Amino acid sequence: MSVVKENIERLLASMTLEEKASLLVGSGWGSMLSICLLSSEKVEVPGAAGVVHSLGRLGIPAIVMADGPAGLRINPRGKGLRKKYFCTGFPVGTAIACSWNTALAEKVGSAMGNEALEYGVDVLLAPAMNIQRSPLCGRNFEYYSEDPLLSGKIAAATVRGVQSNGVGACIKHFAVNSQETNRLKNDARVDERTLREIYLKGFEIAVKESSPWTVMSSYNKINGVYAQENKWLLTDVLRGEWGYEGLVMTDWTEDRGNTAGQVAAGNDLMMPGIDTQAKHIIDSVRNGSLPEATLDACVQRVLELIAKTARFKGYEYSNKPDLASHAALCREAACEGMVLLENRNVLPLKDVRRVALYGTASYDFMAGGTGSGNVNKPYVVNVADGMSGAGFEVDASVEDSYRHFFRSRKNREKRYVMLGNAPWRALEHDQAEIEQAALRNDFAIYTISRQAGENQDRRVENDFELKDGERRNLERMCAAFHRHGKKVIVLLNVCGVIETASWKELPDAVLAVWGAGQEGGNSIADVLTGRSYPGGRLSMTFPVSYYDMPVSENYPSKGIREFRSSSEAMRGIIDDSGRKDIAYTEYQEGLNVGYRYFCGASAAPVSYPFGFGLSYTEFALSEAVAQVIDGALHMSVRCSNVGAAVGKEVVQVYVSAPGVTLEKPDCELRAFAKTRELAPGESEILEFRLPLSDLASFNPSSAAWEVEEGEYTIHFGSSAVDLLLNCKVNISIS
Ligand code: GLC
What we know:
Elements: H1 3-14, H2 17-23, E1 50-51, E2 64-66, H3 93-97, H4 102-118, E3 123-124, H5 148-163, E4 170-174, E5 187-189, H6 192-210, E6 214-217, E7 221-222, E8 225-226, H7 231-241, E9 247-250, H8 259-265, H9 275-286, H10 292-308, H11 323-337, E10 339-343, E11 354-358, H12 383-389, E12 393-394, H13 396-406, H14 431-440, E13 443-449, H15 460-464, H16 468-483, E14 487-493, E15 509-512, H17 520-529, E16 542-543, H18 566-571, E17 584-586, H19 595-598, E18 606-608, E19 619-629, E20 632-641, E21 650-656, E22 668-674, E23 683-691, E24 697-699, E25 704-706, E26 710-717, E27 723-731
Parallel strand pairs: 2-3, 4-6, 5-7, 5-17, 6-9, 11-12, 11-13, 13-14, 14-15
Antiparallel strand pairs: 1-2, 7-8, 10-15, 16-18, 19-20, 20-23, 21-22, 21-26, 24-25, 26-27
Helix pairs in contact: 1-10, 2-9, 4-5, 4-11, 5-6, 11-17, 12-17, 14-16
The site of alpha-D-glucopyranose (GLC) has 8 residues, from loops.
């Protein structure tokens, strides 16, 4: 047994019941301020989300946990220019996933983990990796994809990056936290096959490929049992089947009156911690309803976590992380995640200088989302800054109309947002004004923005769909600028999918920039000018209509009350009305999430498919090979740059499996790889090796993962519909 394990055993044996219970309960909500209300310990890192109690008698320090998925969130402290504890606001999770670049995800994770280390944080509460089941989920920007393989691989890379600093990561929210409406009480009702293949699979990949120090159990119920007290989930599956040896903590919530049940289920740590929870544990052990051995198992995992931390090892954190190099990484990462959706001979820009910038986010850029996934950033480079920094002349008159618009808070939407500002309404421009701008400028950029955050879902009207003012602006802009032979570019500075089919033919280019982080304006200028290029591919489907998605039958989209106050927002929409989609949500669509549905013959066409993205060059695939050798599927394919500019391609491997025992989606993403940067004429051979178990489906009848025998078709493609080459392989299990 290791020294640490031996010491932990001895430490455990010397602890009182009260000490054990106090270690399983955080120091309370107050830690987000500057002092723990419970223990009145001074919190070393104000603004951190949570602190685990110290035990001075035993030399156990209080460890610190802080959000979040787009960078460390702590209080910058100080006033005005004296503020100094800023953190880098990286591109949001969706943008990193759209890079399909696990090496990049690991670099970003490492930078985030370094800021946690140097600011004295022991566990970074990231990555967030729930499946983007519906475009309306308010936290989709924090999440990665509609697909569990892409989610799991990006999450695992992020975890490896964070933990390379000796700081813990926390994969969250385990599990099936795919809606924000009534999130504290919603019961997600999912059949086991769908649960395993879609909603747990990403977490399984992350656990097995990156060993996260911690997992955060989610607020919601799964098939009637709260995740926080779900023994099947937290002990049988997570630990028993997947071999997870780390710690499980709750999401931040009140005392639900069943702390002993949470401990018994394998939830080790109650966060942020309410003192009644410790009392509940003590009483339960004393009355025999909670075996002390069960308690000890949880205490042991908390001690093991503490023993891993830099704080326990006496690291002297500097409070001076290298924010400059992280900003440069932020700028590069955003370009890799930007997805070029339309380009009619306009990008990269040539021979133009004067630009009319429309859209509030051109001047007040959405670097990320709101809620715990927000970051206190030192600055945000908006589109105007980025374009003028790149030498363009931004039309002053158009800019002034926005500066004037920003002066009145009435121009913000009337809703309360947790940890962030309510978004701006659309500023509408009349035809004459746009006509004048078309004469003065060489081209126009229209930044369409959407913002969301935890605790609240999006709506269909005026959110997923364009707002009226936006459509009129776009129509007027394109008419006027095109009349003068000038181009219009649309940027999607959005928190997730919006409707695009009804307007995407109007402008000359559409570029999804997402929540591109604090360097967003510079990254946009880099891509538009060709200093960089759009390296992203969609990690989710853009449907023609929200209602084309099966999930639209079972998701709250109408009559969702907006928060009216901060307290209401902090509490969230708690609704005990027993209503469908509110009290419970039926995942009736099963596996038919995203491309798994839209690739089916009977599905409606989409506006942009999963995996899609244009480049400034062209790629071709050749020499595709697939064969089963020693019980594994070996594949290779050559990707060549056959265009006239540098670029990186994402080669996606989809598999169509025989559906004899179990019905299967027409195709499923089973592997992917991004090429290095290829110059025109260069090529790279990408090789894949998949254990046959990666092709398995979960059979609820046998409660086992099964690989069906028969003929499999292996598709090599550049999106879920652009399946360019395919091979057939026969798989027999005997
Ligand atoms: C929030 C979020 C979770 C976050 C935690 C601490 O409510 O659900 O993602 O890490 O509380 O801020």
